[in-house]
Amino acid sequence: MNIINEKIVIESVSRRYPKYNITELVSRMPEDYHPEEADWGKPMGKEVW
To answer: For residue 21, what are the CA distances in angstroms to 16, 18, 26, 34, 48?
Structure first.
């Protein structure tokens, strides 16, 4: 937001998202990490498990 010639000017700004690297992210995980399985119950409708 700027003031130009006594007017408030609002301009859009492009967002910069961080670039992720899966290898680097996984390297930060503890070696003893073992995710738990989640039980979502029986299939409903046309779901297939």
So the answer is: 16, 10, 9, 21, 32
Task: Write down the pTM of the prediction.
Answer: 0.39
CB 9 within 8 A of CB 1: yes
Question: Mind giving me the DSSP string for 31-42?
Answer: TT--PPP----S
Q: How many Å apart are CA 44 and CA 36, to the nearest integer?
A: 23
- Cβ atoms of residues 49 and 43 within 8 Å: yes
Strand partners, 3: 8
Q: Max Cα separation, the chain?
A: 65
pLDDT per residue as tens digits for the range 30-41:
999 999 999 888
